[in-house]
Every structure is written in C-alpha cells, then in structure tokens.
Amino acid sequence: MLSDVSETTDPRVRTTQQELPGTPEGTGTPKGAATPEGAGGRKRAPRIHRAWFVAAVAFVTIIGGAAFGSLPGLLIDPLHDDFGWSRGEIGMGVSLNMALYGLTAPFAAALMDRYGMRKVVATALTMIATGAVLSVWMTASWQLMLYWGLLVGLGTGSMALSFSATVTNRWFVERRGLVTGILTAAGASGQLVFLPLCAWIVDEHGWEPAVVTVALAALVVVPFVWLLLRDHPADVGLAPYGGEFTPKPEPTRGAAKRTVRVLVDAARTGPFWLLAGSFAICGASTNGLIRTHFVPSAHDHGMQITAAASLLAVIGVFDIIGTIASGWLTDRFDARRLLAVYYALRGISLLFLPMLLAPTVHPPMIFFIIFYGLDWVATVPPTLALCREHYGADSAIVFGWVLASHQVGAAVVAFLGGVARDVFGTYDVVWYASGALCAAAALMALVIRRNARDAELLA
C-alpha cells in the first residue's frame, strides 16, 4: 500500500505526473497516498487505510438494514392465524417486497452517483423503519402490500448489494473480491443477529414487538451512516486502497436515464442474460425459498418455530464464512467455474432436503444447514467480478440490474411456494423444482464468455 509506484497498467486508475500538481519530477505517488489539488507535497497515507473504516461502517449499515429480512419466514403462520389470510396472500406481500428490492437496486446505484451514498442510504433506512412500524396497525392484506411490499421493498432495495458494489468500486482497487465477500456476508450477519431474537419475541410476545425491533435496528444505524460514511476517497484526500489518487468525479445527472441506458446497452450482450438468468435462480433458491418457506415447512413436519429459526441463523454463520472464502477464491480463480460449482452443489442439496425435515434436529439436517450456509451467497463475489470484467465503469449499475433479476426470481418463488403449500399441502414439489433450476444455472455460468482484455486489467 505504501510502495512507490509511478503509474499502473490499468488506465482506469492511472494518474500521471501531469495530473498531480506539485509532485517533484522523477518521483512517483505512493499507492494509497494522495496529492491534494494545488498542494506542494504529498499527503502521507494512514497506517490503516481509511477504506477499511468505510467498509466497516458499510458492514454495520447492511446489518441494520438486513434485520427486516429475518421476519417474513417467521410471520407467515402468525399472520395466517391472526387475520385468516392465506399463505398465498402473505406470500404476495413478501413477493412484492422482493421484487421492488431488486428493481430499485440499479436506480439506487445511479442515485448514489448523483447524490452520494450517505443521503441515499440514510433515506433508505428511514423508509424501512417507517414501513415496519406502520405494519403494526394493519388490518387488511392490501396494507401488507403497501407497508411491507412498497415502503420496505423500496428501502431495502436502495441499500441492496448495489451499495456494496459502490463502496467496493470507489474505495478499493486491490482486495475487491475479499471486500465484496465481507460486505455480502453482512446480510447474513444481520440474519444471525436478529433471526433467533425475533423468533423468541414472536413466540413469547407476538409478531408486533418483533416488527418494532427491526424498525429500531434500522433507525439506530442512521447516525453512523451520516457521521462516518464518506462517498469517495478524494473527500478525505486519499487514493483508493491499492490505487492512485483520482479527483472525485462530478455528480452524474439524469440518474434514471443513465440507469435505463446502461440496461439497454448491457441487454445487447450475451453475458448479461446469462448472469441475470443464473442470478434469478440464485434468488429463487435462497431468499424466495429457504428464507421465506423453510421455517413454515419445518413447522409442517413438527419442528418448533424457534428451532427452525435457529437453523436459519446457523446458515447465517456459515454464510459469512462461505462468502468471504468465495471472495478470496474469486481473486484467484475463474469466476465462471466457481459459479458452476456453487449452483450444482446447491441443487443437489435441495433434492435431499424433503427427506431431512423432521420434528427434531438430527445430524443430516445439521450437515445440510452447514453446507447450504457456505453456499448461500457465495455466488455474489464471482457474479460481481464478471460484471466488472464485462461492463467496467457501469458494472455497479449492471450488477444492480442483475440483482433485480435475483429478486424477481425470489419474488416468484416466495409467491408460488405459498400457493403450492395451499394447493398440495406440502412444499416438496418446490424443493425438487428449485434443485432442477440450480442445475440449469450451473450450465449458464459455464457458457459465459471470457473477456480476456478486461480480465487481464482486473487481475
């Protein structure tokens, strides 16, 4: 980080001597150090680069925003019992939430370019808290669509994985795969922290106090975002970690227009559709299936809600390990092959799940939980790496659209899973269908073409 480098081979991060006023001729600019515009000397880089503190704030922020994600699977049965709503109706509310989460994400990335991360993320957290609190007073299923679906969906979508991509792209040149894995794991950490707590609250005090708890979690994080998060390394006179100093770009106007233009351009390429299709299956087999329907499915087999929720929390533990490991692997191996392996193994595990559900937790079920946890969002770092490889400076917005497909896939299965349970009285058909879809996703990953020039630049 502190070694002297006069220039880098990557034109996206290269800074020449002419671009750094006051730098003595024949000397370079250290990686991680900045030469403030108009200054006569170089600013010494801190011992621990500021980028790591920004990543830490983003990690805590994502945990707070992810608190609501632990609720839907816990509340299907209580809402069914309290209001008499069918599981299909409740699943529709969850489905709308997931769909808006995904469709908002690409616009959020462009809005962060226009208004900055702090404003967008602070507003998103406030929307999550507002929607969660209002749902305490709902009496009809359309209110579930409005509060959970619209408000919380827009809020969570505005600080979805596009936030992680924006932080990583702006603050890091080196260790991008690792940081992507860490920030992606933050969502699992939120699940780990809040899922057992909310399950206990639902069991002991009802669903309303659990909803208030996640609203407070979102609000608590807002001051951290406003006071500690910084939009760009140039704001504090530093270069990104592992790169050269670059001035902060001017705010990008026309965020919505740019977002749509990037989608149109990306949609003309084959890799976009393969990434979007495989990531839609990823969402269907995680958020749409396991996060939404695992707890009620286990309860159908006689398992206590708190026990099933604890198993989901254990998934969160191993999700952290698996995602960080996947980020490390993505920095070293072909992202396409990693994705193929992840999807294939996930599909095999889903085919066995109906045989493992029982009233008590036994060793084969524990093995499934550990395995699925390691694989849960391990797909994110290689997917984001392939977006960077093929789409360069627009990669965060392209990834936002790919994430939209992830959430649409999740939304479809969240709804159809509830309908299948109402029609067949069991979730088995959903597990088998999702396993087959994962096999298709593995094939999609393998046929994504390699962009040799960009892969070399990003190596």
TrEMBL record:
Superkingdom in the source lineage: Bacteria
Gene3D superfamilies: MFS general substrate transporter like domains
Gene Ontology molecular function terms on file: transmembrane transporter activity
GO terms for cellular component: plasma membrane
Skewed-composition ranges (Low complexity): 21-37
All residue ranges annotated as the Major facilitator superfamily (MFS) profile domain in the record: 53-453
Topological relation to the membrane, as annotated: Multi-pass membrane protein
Keywords tagged on the record: Membrane, Transmembrane, Transmembrane helix
Bias type Polar residues, positions: 1-20
Renumbered residue ranges of the record's region Disordered: 1-43
Residue ranges of the TM segments: 51-70, 90-111, 120-140, 146-166, 178-202, 208-229, 271-290, 302-328, 340-359, 365-386, 398-417, 429-448
Pfam families cross-referenced by the UniProt entry: MFS_1
Compartment(s) of residence: Cell membrane
Protein name: Putative MFS-type transporter YbfB
Organism of this sequence: Streptomyces aurantiacus JA 4570
